[in-house]
Amino acid sequence: MNILAELRQRFLEALEPLVDDPGRLLEMILPVQDPRFGDYQANCAMPLGKERGCPPRDVASEIVERLKVEDLCEPVEIAGPGFINLRLRDDWLIEQVNQLVHDQRLGVDGVDDPDTVVIDYSSPNVAKPMHVGHIRSTVIGDALARILRFLGHQVIADNHLGDWGTQFGMIIYGYKHFVDSDRFESDTVNELSRLYRLVNDLVEYHQAVAGIDRQLEEIREREEKLEQQQLRVDEASQDEKKKQSSQLRRQQTQLEDARDRLAGARKKIDAVDEDQALATLAAEHPGVAEAVLGETARLHEGDSECRQLWEQFLPACRAEIDKIYQRLDIQFDVEHGESFYHSQLEPVVEELLANGLARMSEQAVCVFGEKYDTPMIIRKKDGAFLYATTDLATIQYRVATWQPDTLLYVVDHRQGEHFEKLFDAARRWNCPDLEMRHVSFGTVLGDDGRPFKTRSGEVVGLESLLDGAVARALEVVSENDQAKPGGAELGEQEREHIASVVGHAAIKYADLAHNRTSDYVFSYDKMMALEGNTATYMQYSYARVQSIFRRGEVDVDGLRSSFAGILLQHPAERHLALGLLQFSEALDQVLEDYRPNQLTNYLFDVAKRFSTFFQECPVLRAEDEAVRLSRLLLCDVTARVIGQGLELLGIGVVDRM
Ligand code: ARG
Question: Does any ligand 1 atom lie closer than 6 A to the CB of residue 160?
Fold first, then answer.
């Protein structure tokens, strides 16, 4: 049962005779945090009063007169200017929470009308090692897939691997010029990523060298503009000052960014210049950037040597990525990757040209939209297809194969413009009614507030990041174990197992718990704190219940099937029970805007309610047997809600920590 949905339904019935479009008012019925105002509150009398020009309190009375909630609520109260406060009846709550004891789904009903949803997530470019930036797409996408499935939707989890891009041109070039054959035989993946990094360094080196004058010029221009803007601020009138100053700040940031870019380019150049072997290679391969594009083009044109190398490289690259997925417990239904759509690119371009959606512009094929000045290019002047072309072909395939209601793309916010243009084109082309959403997310930052890098300035590889988390978790688990009042309980092996669960969980949860659209600072310490909104705290709450069961020698199956029931006598028990009954509301909230942090917030709230309950209500030493059994049942449902909630986030639990 979803209490909020039920209350909204009752309000809908009450409001229908009063207003034309009552649907819009239902969002104003919400759970309340402060129990003094009841359990739920409806604020819809306020806007209605305003619209009708009569006191909201009168409107509230009118609504309450029609509202039929006696079976679940205490007599409804109107407070202040017209708040409608609802307090659930204790007997009703007791009945509901007791149903959870026997309900596998913990009060979460499946949807009546399931959607087919394709989720495009993780989607790394396979020839490069995965890095910290891939965590977000991977874990947010996985959590959404799990939650949608749990609610009964048909989900197709699609890993749109970048297995066809320039990075393959890089390793093909690298293989042809720099391969260490022995290493390639014995340690293919590492040799391939070495080749990738080497060629990438050379390409970036030459690009940096070639771009430096332009960058210096840009900085000079920006400095000049900034000076002028400073004058404008100084001379501005009081009214104008604010506007001019914010313009000044914007320009300052732009200048800083340009300086950062220059510093980055210089660093790249220095790194090569200071390494004699690299410097020699750079001098020997001045045309590496074009050559890489050439290899990529040959691969795409079906050149047999390139193609054969690609077929040789791909399995190794994928195996490397699969290792990470295994560690993170990530699964997909399909992993076609960009290469799968290769043969469709030409026909897509032809079709769009034929139906007038695309046209030639400066020898490139472009789709123009209304919102942006720059078009979406789908075939370059040199004949090459682009990322966008593949994405169009992919939409066509997905629509034809699964007839989805919704396509979700869990991708970095920097690709926002790409997706807006893509969706616009796809809608005008062949899927006007398809819901397409870019589920975008912010950046993972280091302590310095900049994108997370190692000390030497390299992107942090995902694998070493996970290793770091597990190592840190082992410290936390060991310290915690040693500090136990009765002495340490865990053997070495068990500690390691727990550390693996806790470490991986910490990384995932920290990511999911942040509002996906904001950036967040990566910190092992924060994500493994035993208090606060962390996976560790949640897993600890779960383990605490299991430890109560162990200490009390409770047969949990027996307890559930016994005639014992949950009684709600203490306010902390009631508060916890209500929290447990709101699981289904939390999942609905996640799906409103595809935000898994709605679920982590909910779980954190439940864990806090449990902690208060545990402090105030003795469980094993309860005053009598009925209360003891009732509290044990509450503990059990709490652990199950937390366990299920974490599972929906792709996070495991352990029985002891
Ligand atoms: N491979 C791309 C990248 O690493 C992400 C792909 C996202 N999915 C898509 N259908 N465009 O940036």
Answer: yes
